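[Meeting: bench + compute handoff]

Bench side (C.D.) handed over the final construct sequence. Compute side (W.E.) agreed to return the predicted structure before the next meeting so the bench team could plan truncations. Sequence as handed over:
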Amino acid sequence: MASNKDERPMIAVSDVLDNAPFSAFHFGLILLCTLVAIVDGFDTTALGVIAPTVARDWGLSLPTFAPALAASLVGMALGGAIGGMLGDRFGRRPVMIIMFVIVTLATLASAFAKNIQQLEALRLLTGLGIGGTIPLGAALVAEYMPKRHRSFLLVVMFSGHALGGTLAGLLAPFLINNFGWRSVFFAGGIAPAILVFALLALLPESARYLTAQGTTAARARAIGLLTKANATARVTAGAQLTTGEQAVARGSVADLFKANRGSQTVFLWITFFATQFVLFALASWLTSLLTQAGHSQDTGAYAQMLHNLGGVFGSLAFGLLSDRLSARPVLIAVNFGSIVFIAGLGMFAASDFALLMALVSGVFVLAAQLCLNAYTTGLYPTPLRATGVGWALSFGRLGSILSPLVTGALMARDWTPSSLFFAIAAVPLISIAALTFVRGERHETSDVIAGH
């Protein structure tokens, strides 16, 4: 009698992807996502770097720019939440490309802003697109990279944001002095316009996401992508695929608080809030604060470049360390470093040592955020990964929204640059306290075959 049992081989997607040799496929994906992060970092930092020039051009005071700086961060908060949920429901690839198109168009339009109100609206749209691309790029990298390289390569991708900020600080003085401040927005809009075509041609959908869809067409696409990601695995066309993860609603925010994930999610969000408060207080006001402390605008922009450059190297170094040690203690140590060297900015704000403090503080401040991003991708299962990262980033954006507003309000009350740096230096204590309570289960290798 013929057996009705399905004899097709059952393959765990995680086994194929986790054990894959690093290949041209992986290099192409990490390159694309890192380029996207570079563009996002450039566009995020652009207004903070050019604010003193725009203020003079429009006859405004620097604190007047606080709402415009906050507007892009409000957009990032909305984009992170919306992009993450849409990516879990409709796929990482299409939503990420749409969000990146929004970044392109809004940044180019910012070059034509005629007043602060128009600039605020356009920065809101820019932030919406940036906020949407980050969790989706992180989800794709987390879901495709071999396990032994995953944490480090996630940090590489996220460090692109810091590199973009470095480029903004490096190029802005040249562009402003030769072509005016609007050219900074032109530069930040033309690059992503070119990159959109590369994303359309080369960006893959997540094989894990496709497998979780459960349809015949989606699994056929997943098999093709698995073959590209790991040619040695011999995944045949007739194979059955499984993620092996517990079934949860795709893109469900409520599920972030179920199955013992509630306390983990709450303390993660608190950590993101404090970390982004610090990150964007410096990203928005470092140039202006050092200018008020007596430095030239070019020196202030150079300090911003050094701060971001330090973040690139710090993120890579601490990312490697996180791969070899437990990530949570590394994050706690990094936050202690942030406290010390931001306080150093306060001590040496008016001296040439401010440039050194800008560089070294960047090593820790940006590493705290980027390593936290990478750490978070492993705390949620595949159907919730983009949602979990997106909502953590979005809650963190509340901190990033408040930081330029609070800093601007204190500037208007005649707080000195040194006093503001000391105040910012106290905030990482909140991150350290919250991280001691994050003890969630890692999901880097949780795709197992039931009963296999």
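W.E. noted at the follow-up: Residues 10-435 form a domain with the Growth Hormone; Chain: A; fold (CATH 1.20.1250.20). C.D. will use this when planning the next construct.
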